[in-house]
Design brief:
heterodimer, A: 164 residues, alpha/beta, globular, B: 105 residues, mainly alpha
Chain lengths: 164, 105
């Protein structure tokens, strides 16, 4: 093992698609599994992952993704013009959800709860909250607080920062 | 393949200290590994987790994920992290004499 174990990670989640939200959650939860302190900071569209009536509606983006194949391995490429058809995003989301469940990767709402119980701290970006006009009551109970970018750097001090 | 001394026991392990021969495992060795991992005493809730992990591992060939464990009702996520601080799945598997868990979640 390399010298100097990572002690803390602070991960910025800026995208609100399924593939935008999962990596941050997996990395933060995975950090806790290794005894590493973990903060998640949700900004811009990534904020959906901590908004009560949005957290259950996070989907795979099937448009503008040149790596969209079905099935993912050895499949046919799904061009944006097909990806934009009604139901495509819902189907892709369902498909990935099913595959992930088999690997014990929970759906996002359950994953947020699990990561929170594991000690991951959840924060929302104040600039985004102001811009989207959200209020405290709009957020899931796991959200610690709405913080400024300055607060974020303070919380991230002494650790690694990862932007996703 | 190496060996490692836990307390007064010498057991076969991999280079991370996970036991490689489950036949050698017993509760005293578990307690000795726990001590080395910073857990002073294995209590009833610890043993409940260890028993479940060993049963699942015997049945399925690998230690259960944290999610599988919490869904089974053996232990809650928070409690699991409290019982085995600083990496519960890995620590519990090590104490249980099982392989290091694979999987990212």
């Amino acid at each position: 093992m390399a010298e100097g174990k990572i002690k803390k990670v602070s991960i910025v989640v800026s995208k609100g698609s399924l593939e935008g939200v999962y990596p941050g959650l997996i990395m933060a939860n995975g950090a806790r599994m290794e005894g590493i302190e973990a903060n998640l900071f949700f900004t811009f569209f990534g904020l959906d992952a901590v908004v009560k009536n949005r957290i259950g509606k996070i989907r795979v983006a099937t448009v503008g993704n040149p790596a969209m194949y079905f099935p993912p391995k050895n499949g046919i490429r799904i061009p944006s013009i097909l990806g934009m058809l009604p139901g495509m995003s819902a189907f892709a989301t369902w498909y990935f959800g099913k595959t992930m469940d088999k690997l014990d990767i929970p759906p996002i709402p359950e994953f947020v709860e699990m990561a929170h119980d594991a000690g991951v701290k959840f924060y929302a970006c104040k600039a985004t909250v102001d811009m989207f006009k959200y209020e405290a009551k709009d957020f899931i109970p796991q959200l610690e607080s709405v913080i400024t970018v300055g607060d974020f750097y303070e919380k991230a001090a002494g650790g690694e920062i990862i932007f996703t | 393949m190496g060996s490692k001394t836990y307390g007064t026991f010498v057991v076969e392990t991999n280079d991370e200290g996970f036991m490689t021969n489950f036949q050698q495992w017993n509760k005293d060795i578990a307690a000795a590994i726990a001590k080395q991992e910073g857990i002073a005493e294995l209590t009833a809730p610890h043993w409940k987790v260890i028993d479940y992990m060993q049963k699942e591992s015997a049945a399925k060939g690998s230690a259960p994920s944290i999610r599988a464990m919490t869904k089974s009702g053996v232990v809650g996520t928070k409690e699991f992290y409290d019982l085995f601080p600083g990496g519960p799945a890995k620590k519990a598997a090590k104490i249980a004499g099982l392989k290091k868990p694979v999987g990212c979640v």
